[in-house]
Amino acid sequence: MNIALIGFMGTGKTTVAKLLAEILDYCLVDIDEEIVKVEGRSIPDIFAEEGEEYFRDVESKVTLNISQGDKQVISTGGGVVLREENIDNLKSNGIVVLLRATAETIFQRVKDEGGRPLLEVADPLAKIKSMLAERADKYNCTEYQIDTDQLSAEEVVEQILKAVKSEE
C-alpha cells in the first residue's frame, strides 16, 4: 500500500512525506522530482518551453508508473488533481491524503522560494486564492483531509498514521 499526499503548493506535502517515509520505512517518491529526471530539465523550463498541457501529460505518465509501486510515500505536485485519472491511479494501490492550508498560509510559506511558474504574477496571493477556488472540487476527492495551518509536520504525520490504521 502507498500513501499519496495531495494538496496545493505550500501545504506541507514534501516536508510531511519525508518524515512519514522515514517513520514507516517506506520509499519516498516525489512526483515533481521524477518528472525532472524523466525530462532532464527543471519544471520551470518545461512550463516555459512546452507549456502546462505538456507538463500535465508527463505528470500523468509519471503518476501512473509510480502508483504501481508499493510501500511508498508519494508527494505529488499541487496540480496532480487536475486530471481525475491521476487520483484514480493513486487510489488504486493506496490511500490519498489531502493536505490543506489557507491562501495566506500558503503565500507565507512559498513567497521566497521561487521556481513556482504559476505564481510568477503581479499579485501571487490573489493568484493562490483564485487557484484554490478553481481546484476546490478536485481537491475534495478523498475522505482523508488535514488542515496544516496550525500543525507541525509531526502532528500531520500522526493524523495520517491514524488514517492508515483505519484502512488496515
Structure description:
The termini are close together. The chain is globular, with a radius of gyration of 15 Å. It has a single domain (2-149), classed as Rossmann fold. A five-stranded parallel beta sheet has the order 2-3-1-4-5. It has 168 residues and is of the alpha/beta class. It contains eight helices and five strands, in the order E-H-E-H-H-H-E-H-E-H-H-E-H.
Short description:
By secondary structure, this protein is of the alpha/beta class.
Query: How many distinct folded domains?
Result: 1
Q: How many strands, what sense, and barrel or not for the largest sheet? A: 5 strands, parallel
* CATH A-level architecture: 3-Layer(aba) Sandwich
**Beta-strand fraction estimate:** 5-15%
Report helical residue fraction: 40-55%
Can you tell me the residue ranges where pLDDT is under 50 for at least 5 consecutive residues? none
Structural class: alpha/beta
Radius of gyration: 15 Å
Cα-to-Cα separation, first versus last residue: 10 Å
CATH class call = Alpha Beta
Order of helices and strands: EHEHHHEHEHHEH
Count of DSSP H/I helices:
8
What would CATH call the homologous superfamily? P-loop containing nucleotide triphosphate hydrolases
Largest sheet strand order:
2-3-1-4-5
Family: Belongs to the shikimate kinase family.
Binding site for Mg(2+): 14
Subunit structure: Monomer.
Pfam family, one: SKI
